[in-house]
């Protein structure tokens, strides 16, 4: 089932958590087995002739699944029901609840009370503007929390500490308060794009002590690369912001970066020496900016394979901008370089410019974009 | 385990996507025209590229090539076999989806079309989530590679038709909130594994639903067709059905015929319709019904057949036009008749004054608090 696979996802994410905290592997295996069982959704279907006994009445009295939801194998699927609040009668042993695409406006204190086994909670696309500070209490096992497409104005208080993935895409959050993620050392994936976050909205220390690997703050109001993000990051995506330039100190903290997305900003230049801070980088997207030249230092990045520079204002490409010059220098071959939609004329670029590229198809040069 | 996971993470995170291009004006071309994306060579056969020597070319350094790991589209996260690409503003299904993916989450993007080769080679995919895009067209062969697909979520798109040629392996289909007005007899042909079907919030009409359209769904246990324009309960629903949700439609009456054969039905939702009559004998057609929602309709009387029904425990009748409730409307005449105790009866927001309902009417109710009588809703 979907949820089973999501559970697997959880499991895998937990693998990532391993360097940071021990995991209860037996418990996880048990969960995994539950999810691996037969997919047949027969959770409700316990009406057989044994029910004729009066003794069973009391057992039947307890509602097994909220009306309109489907409950199977500890996964409660209540999406698309027009619900205006979290349904009662969610079975206490539930592992996952899908409440997306409803009209829920508020998460109340006791909405998830007693659901101490919950691993994943999906509240995407509701109208949630309020979450009670105690609503997520005692959710020690929660790993995935999806709150995207709601009306939240701040990162909810008292988030469960052991979350691995938090998605709050497209809300109304303008400020990331200090200690918003306090104690959440396991949070490895954080997606808070499409919120009106400016650089000044990120309070000092908001990301302290975190070990996040993937962070995306796209479609926000950033005018510079934030400097206080977790230093553990391997992927940082800041596309569709208003970043005007990239400076030497921008990436000093982010030495582990493997992928960097800065497309669709207003970047005019990348300061000399900036890229030396991220020696492990594999892929850089700087397309759809205002660059006048190829960012300096690409030819020193040993592992760089893909660099997007299309749709900029680059007028000249030098023969050594991409590939190292020293005889002994080692460099992974590029698999993708894009330069189309720039003023530079392709016939003015010398062929050896791309001497460290794996096959000529890896270079996109023409001045128009393929359809 | 730890090492493997870390390695995988690294590999998935650092994998770079190769380019595809069809228009390419290049000077170092020795290309076959019309060739598509180059197949990456296996690591062992990889060779450094042929490097054209131009004037002023520096000495050629030594280049290494890291063996290729699994691919992950940029900005997506690929954790082993789950490919998470939601909320990225993508206009197309990305290329380079790892072929061993089991779950592909593409929800909340701007995809308008599913092309023939978008899912090529994804034969291990179990779940495909395309919710909240702008899909109007799905190529007739697009799902053909998905031989293992169990869950297909297409809700919140702009589809005018239920896609043709869905995988026969499908167990759950959600096409909530699209522009679907018709369900043809062939639509679900051969889909014998479907268990859950959600078709709500579409502009369906009763005349647009072919008779027997659902007949091939031999294992289906849950069907929801809420918030559409249908005026009657669809006929010929499979007998495997245990839940049927038809709330928010324009259904005017419940006929015995429409419920014929639904011997496994346990939950029936008919709230927010225009039902004025429940025909005699209707409830006898659904002997295992436990929960019946008939609130917000135009009923003038308690539906017939409740005292004889053995299993109904919850019945919602609030917000109707019921003017009188008799002592024999809910419970059998004597205590000794086998009848599941009610755990919920709602009668509020009806013209009947609660003081005219005799307490003995509810002699087979589990608990007093199970009855909501007053003209206000219990909080």
Mind explaining what this structure looks like?
The complex is a heterodimer of chains A (371) and B (379). Chain A has 371 residues and is mainly beta. Helices cover 9% and strands 14% of the residues of chain A. Chain A contains 3 helices and 19 strands. In chain A, the strands form 3 sheets. Chain A has a 14-stranded mixed sheet with strand order 1-2-3-5-7-8-9-10-11-13-15-16-18-19, with helices on one face. In chain A, strand 1 (70-72) and strand 2 form a beta hairpin. Chain A is elongated and about 70 Å long. Chain B is mainly β. Helices cover 3% and strands 13% of the residues of chain B. In chain B, strand 2 (77-79) and strand 3 (82-84) form a beta hairpin. In chain B, 46% of the residues are buried. Chains A and B meet through helix 1, helix 3, strand 17 and strand 19 of A and helix 1 and strand 1 of B. Strand 17 (331-332) of chain A pairs parallel with strand 1 of chain B, so a sheet runs across the interface. Chain B: It is found in: Secreted, Extracellular space, Extracellular matrix. Chain B: Disulfide bonds join 72-78, 76-85, 331-364. Chain B: This is Decorin.
Supply the number of helical segments of chain A: 3
Major beta sheet summary of chain B: 14 strands, mixed
How confident overall, as mean pLDDT of chain B? 82
CA radius of gyration of chain A:
25 Å
Low-confidence stretches of chain A: 1-62
Question: Any descriptors?
Answer:
heterodimer, A: 371 residues, mainly beta, two-stranded parallel sheet, elongated, disordered N terminus, B: 379 residues, 14-stranded mixed beta sheet, two-stranded parallel ribbon, 1 helix
Give a short overview.
By secondary structure, chain A is mainly β. Chain A is built from three helices and 19 strands.
Topology, pairings included?
The complex is a heterodimer of chains A (371) and B (379).
Chain A (H helix, E strand, L loop, with lengths): L1 H16 L7 H12 L19 H6 L8 E3 L2 E3 L18 E3 L7 E2 L12 E3 L7 E2 L12 E3 L18 E3 L21 E3 L22 E3 L18 E3 L7 E2 L12 E3 L7 E2 L12 E3 L20 E3 L22 E2 L3 E3 L24 E2 L7
Helix pairs in contact in A: 1-2
Chain B lengths: L1 H13 L48 E2 L12 E3 L2 E3 L18 E3 L7 E2 L12 E3 L7 E2 L12 E3 L18 E3 L21 E3 L23 E3 L18 E3 L7 E2 L12 E3 L7 E2 L12 E3 L20 E3 L27 E3 L24 E2 L7
Parallel strand pairs in B: 3-4, 4-6, 5-7, 6-8, 8-9, 9-10, 10-11, 11-12, 12-14, 13-15, 14-16, 16-17, 17-18, 18-19
Antiparallel strand pairs in B: 2-3
């Amino acid at each position: 089932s979907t949820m089973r696979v999501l559970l697997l996802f959880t499991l895998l994410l937990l693998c990532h958590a391993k360097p940071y905290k021990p995991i209860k592997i037996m418990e996880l295996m048990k969960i995994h087995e539950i999810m691996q069982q037969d997919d047949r959704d027969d959770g409700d279907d316990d009406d057989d002739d044994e029910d004729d006994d009066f003794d069973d009445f009391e057992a039947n009295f307890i509602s097994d699944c909220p009306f309109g939801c489907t409950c199977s194998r500890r996964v409660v699927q209540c999406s698309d029901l027009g619900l205006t609040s979290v349904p009662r009668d969610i079975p206490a042993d539930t592992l996952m609840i899908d409440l997306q695409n409803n009209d829920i406006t508020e998460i109340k204190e006791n909405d998830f009370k007693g659901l101490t086994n919950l691993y994943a909670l999906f509240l995407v696309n509701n109208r949630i503007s309020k979450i009670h500070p105690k609503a997520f209490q005692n959710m020690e096992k929660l790993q995935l929390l999806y709150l995207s497409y709601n009306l939240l104005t701040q990162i909810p208080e008292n988030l469960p500490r052991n979350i691995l993935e938090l998605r709050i895409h497209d809300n109304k959050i303008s400020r990331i308060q200090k200690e918003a993620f306090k104690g959440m050392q396991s949070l490895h994936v954080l997606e808070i794009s499409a919120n009106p976050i400016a650089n000044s909205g990120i309070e000092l220390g908001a990301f302290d002590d975190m070990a996040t690997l993937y962070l995306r703050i796209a479609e926000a109001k950033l005018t510079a690369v934030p400097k206080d993000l977790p230093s553990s990051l391997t992927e940082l995506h800041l596309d569709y912001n208003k970043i005007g330039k990239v400076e030497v100190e921008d990436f000093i903290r982010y030495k582990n970066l493997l992928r960097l997305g800065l497309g669709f900003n207003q970047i005019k230049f990348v300061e000399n020496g900036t890229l030396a801070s991220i020696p492990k980088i594999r892929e850089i997207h700087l397309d759809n900016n205002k660059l006048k030249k190829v960012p300096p230092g690409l030819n020193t990045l040993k592992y760089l394979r893909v660099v997007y520079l299309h749709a900029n204002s680059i007028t000249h490409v030098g023969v050594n901008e991409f590939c190292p010059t020293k005889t002994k220098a080692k460099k992974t071959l590029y698999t993708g370089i894009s330069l189309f939609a720039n003023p530079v004329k392709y016939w003015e670029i010398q062929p050896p410019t791309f001497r460290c590229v794996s096959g000529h198809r890896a270079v996109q040069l023409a001045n128009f974009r393929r359809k | 385990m730890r090492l493997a996971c870390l390695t995988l993470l690294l590999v998935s995170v650092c994998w770079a996507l190769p380019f595809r291009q069809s228009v390419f004006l290049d000077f170092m071309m020795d290309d076959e025209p019309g060739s598509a994306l180059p197949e990456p060579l296996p690591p062992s056969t990889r060779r450094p590229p042929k490097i054209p020597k131009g004037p002023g070319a520096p000495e050629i350094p030594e280049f290494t090539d890291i063996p290729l790991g699994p691919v992950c589209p940029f900005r997506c996260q690929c954790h082993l076999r789950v490919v998470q690409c939601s909320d990225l503003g993508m206009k197309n299904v990305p290329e380079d989806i790892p072929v061993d993916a089991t779950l592909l989450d593409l929800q909340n993007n701007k995809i308008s079309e599913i092309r023939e080769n978008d899912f090529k080679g994804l034969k291990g995919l179990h779940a495909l989530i395309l919710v909240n895009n702008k899909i109007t067209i799905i190529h007739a062969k697009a799902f053909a590679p998905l031989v293992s697909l169990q869950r297909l979520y297409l809700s919140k798109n702009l589809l005018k038709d239920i896609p043709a040629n869905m995988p026969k392996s499908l167990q759950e289909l959600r096409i909530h909130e699209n522009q679907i007005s018709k369900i043809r007899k062939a639509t679900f042909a051969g889909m014998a594994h479907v268990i859950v079907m959600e078709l709500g919030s579409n502009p369906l009409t009763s005349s647009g639903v072919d008779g027997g359209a659902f007949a091939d769904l031999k294992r289906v246990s849950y069907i929801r067709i809420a918030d559409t324009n249908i005026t009657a309960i669809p006929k010929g629903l499979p007998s495997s059905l245990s839940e049927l949700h038809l709330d928010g439609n324009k259904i005017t009456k419940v006929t015995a015929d429409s419920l014929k054969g639904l011997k496994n039905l346990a939950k029936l939702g008919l709230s927010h319709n225009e039902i004025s009559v429940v025909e005699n004998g209707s409830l006898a057609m659904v002997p295992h019904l436990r929960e019946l929602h008939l609130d917000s309709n135009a009923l003038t009387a308690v539906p017939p057949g409740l005292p004889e029904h053995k299993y109904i425990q919850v019945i919602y009748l609030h917000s109707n036009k019921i003017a009188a409730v008799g002592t024999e409307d809910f419970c059998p005449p004597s205590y000794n008749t086998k009848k599941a105790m009610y755990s919920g009866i709602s009668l509020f927001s009806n013209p009947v004054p609660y003081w005219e309902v005799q307490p003995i009417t509810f002699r087979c109710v589990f608990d007093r608090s199970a009855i909501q009588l007053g003209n206000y809703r219990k909080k």
